[in-house]
Amino acid sequence: MSFSYKKRYYYEDFVYILAYNIPQKSVKEKKPPFSFQKFKEVYSQSLGKDYFTLLEVVSDPGVVLQKDELVYAGKFGRTKIKRISARLIYEELVDEAKIELDNILKQIVKTDEQRFVEFFNTSGPISPRMHSLELFERIGKKTVEKILFERSKKKFESYEDIKKRCGIANLEEAIYERLRIEIMSKDKLNYYLFAKGIENTLEEREKLKPT
Question: Which of 10, 40, 83, 87 could form a disulfide with 196, with the two C-beta atoms 3.0–4.6 Å apart?
Fold first, then answer.
């Protein structure tokens, strides 16, 4: 008996605007054969809040979006974004969006502290010989052992708690660097801790390559 495995597809409910009113679309949008545009549309580039998907979004010219603005982009009830036109990879971002991406990632690491602290409390191994925490460039096996020991005694409560109990300097920078690696890689990585949306995008592009 054979079983088919369906890969999970990650969708974003909220996006951060990286660049508004870009000169042209980065990716050719798939449109229905009969579509009539009465008004000019505005294309912008954005970053998904939950799965760090890079997305091209479309709005009407009467709607002005601000850089770093958090906008609802879910399937129902959108008010500022008309539709999501394409998934992007890092190389397709305009220069303005690349600069803003770094700013937004630093902001997310700072403001979503509990999200990342929870990851340190619950993360597990990704293979028999490797723990997911080892994917952070500044964390080795001995530090992972210390983290696992400390969290078994008491769950971590903050960045400072992790740094104090496990001796990790620049923890926030290590998280930021991992996010950048996952988002900026043009080739699919073996493992994604956070940027599941980017993983979906690269898998999608791989299927479209000519065989």
Answer: 10
